[in-house]
Amino acid sequence: MYKFDAVINNKFIEGKERLNILDPTTLQTGGTVAALDEQDIDNAFLAARAAFPAWRDLTLIQRINYLTKWNELIAKNREEIAKIMTIEVAKNYKDALTEVDRTVEYITYTLEEAKRLEPMAFTGAGYDVQNKYAIYERLPKGVGLAISPFNYPINLAMSKIAPDLVMGNTVVFKPATAGSMTGSMLGKLAVEAGLPAGIFNVVTGRGSVIGDIITQNKELDFISFTGSVDVGHHILEIASTKDVILELGGKDPVLVLDDKNLDFYSDQIISGAFSYSGQRCTAIKRVLTTNAIADKLVPLLKERIEKLTVGKPMDNADITPVISPKAADFVQSLIDGAIKDGATVVIGNKRDNNLMAPTLMDHVSLKSDLAWEEPFGPVLPIIRNDDINELIKIANESVYGLQAAVFSQDIDLAITVAKQLETGTANINGKTQRGPDSFPFMGIKDSGFGVQGIHETLLSCTRLKGIVINYKNPLTK
Ligand code: NAP
Ligand code: G3H
User: Fold this and answer.
1) How far is the CA of 230 from the centre of ligand 1 (A)?
2) Which residues line ligand 2 (CB under 6 A)?
């Protein structure tokens, strides 16, 4: 059983109370972390505030050198981190390792990209101003609060933390409870790497208990949050800063517009819908297509679902237990509701508590919650309509607007439809996905606010500061 402590000012804090971390596979406690109180959290923010000036005033290369050491330790501990992730979030070991490797690459890329954030220079000449030079450089905003969700415990943590730190901010990091052993491990490695005290602090505890205390702390300058719409909107209402970036949920549709490459489309749809048991913000969460295409597509999807393995994360099963029995109950309620409304179960709809068989539902009615709600589990609804304009309308009627995918060999049609989809990103002939991490990533409507991505995050954690130099020519009177 694992035991991890929080990290404040480079000190390990056990906490007056401890929080049990559920292993979703055994439904037993997989380890414990500190359950911090208000005083501990205050201390974390005070430490981050105190450390800010010295960290900001290091050269960029000095900060990069510190963070490189940390990144090397993360890479060295890849197996251990991946194993912890299999225990606390039930991600299969292979995917957990991929997540760690992807994160190491993310950090490396971020440290390189930071070097290219050159100041901008202006002469004002375009406005017939002959006596000014202006330099605009990017300065850190101060103390950043990073809050991550359970589903990518290291990637969605470090994709905030690394840019914040390299640009000279200091950070208080609140991992999801399921994911806080991985988060605490990052703190432990930061201390081992010799990061200056106070620049990176890990605070653990249930969001329902400490969340409001954290987001209302007066020392924080900006927040980067990834998680559910409800919590994101709540933070926006109560936070002590209005500088908030939100990456929230999704109900990504895929529009299949022809039957010319159905094997390829099916492979993409299955991988997009069922990786990590559908617990990805960018998972394909509905298929929109015509009756004629659906009649050919459904058997191909079924064939592929039959081949997915269901089981334990350490056995590298494709489908592993969803994060909790409560999450499984929610997915089940969506399936049951859709069946009542006339949908057919093509395959699946079996469960052993929170281990759910991958489920494909056809003829899902627009009346059903499954057509609109984000299940965050292994279920894929098919919604049929013979009018392409109606399919686009259904795609856009969602409150979400993260990503969408369009499959068609008619590139004119694909581009035309992709342009009409109200999402941050529309993918043509490829599944919905965040990566590569260097691409800008953003949701509209309830899916979020602000833009992430390696370059974009470096911008969002900094502010422009201009120095305008006025001069006159002393040689002319
Ligand atoms: P969640 O329940 O909203 O939790 C997210 C984070 O917020 C956790 O660290 C949680 O801590 C914390 N939290 C809870 N209450 C809080 C409060 N009052 N104040 C501050 N923080 C609070 O989401 P989740 O279940 O972990 O993740 C799944 C959701 O995230 C899905 O909707 C998914 O689509 C979305 N997501 C979006 C993206 C994206 O990039 N758009 C990426 C990944 C996931 P506790 O765990 O301790 O409650
Ligand atoms: O859960 C949300 C992640 O940002 C998705 O990333 O599309 O690479 O799985 P991904």
Assistant:
1) 9
2) 151-152, 156, 280-282, 433-435
d(CA 380, CA 343): 12
pLDDT tens per residue, range 433-444 = 998 999 999 999
Ligand with smallest separation from the Cα of 273: 2
Ligand 1 atom 30 nearest Cα: 227
Q: Tell me which H or E stretch contains 462.
A: strand 462-470
Report how far residue 7's alpha carbon sits from residue 185's, in angstroms, rounded to the nearest whole number. Answer: 10
Q: Does residue 179 line the site of ligand 1, with CB under 6 A?
A: no
Q: What is the Cα gyration radius of the chain?
A: 24
- Options 3.40.50.2300, 3.40.50.1110, 1.20.1530.20, 3.40.309.10; CATH for 252-428 is 3.40.309.10
Q: What is the pTM of this model?
A: 0.98
Q: What is the pLDDT of residue 130?
A: 81
Tell me the CATH architecture of domain 2-248+447-466.
Answer: 3-Layer(aba) Sandwich (3.40)
Residue 248 Cβ < 6 Å to ligand 1 = yes
HSE value, Cβ hemisphere, 13 Å, CA-based, for 246: 26
**pLDDT attached to residue 127:** 76
Q: Are the CB atoms for 182 and 84 separated by under 8 Å?
A: yes
pLDDT of residue 262: 98
Structure confidence at residue 477 (pLDDT): 64
pLDDT digits (tens, 9 = 90+) for 64-81: 999 999 999 999 999 999
Residue ranges, comma separated, of all CATH 3.40.309.10 domains in the chain are: 252-428
Q: How many Å apart are CA 319 and CA 72, to the nearest integer?
A: 31
**All CATH 3.40.605.10 domain ranges in the chain, comma separated:** 2-248+447-466
Q: Spell out, as residue ranges, where the chain has pLDDT lower than 50.
A: none
- 91-127 pLDDT, tens per residue? 999 999 999 999 999 999 999 999 999 999 999 887 7
With the most atoms of ligand 1 within 8 angstroms of its CB, the residue from 38, 150, 236, 402 to mutate is 150
What's the gap in Å between 177 CA and the centre of ligand 1? 10
Contact predicate 272/301, CB 8 Å = no
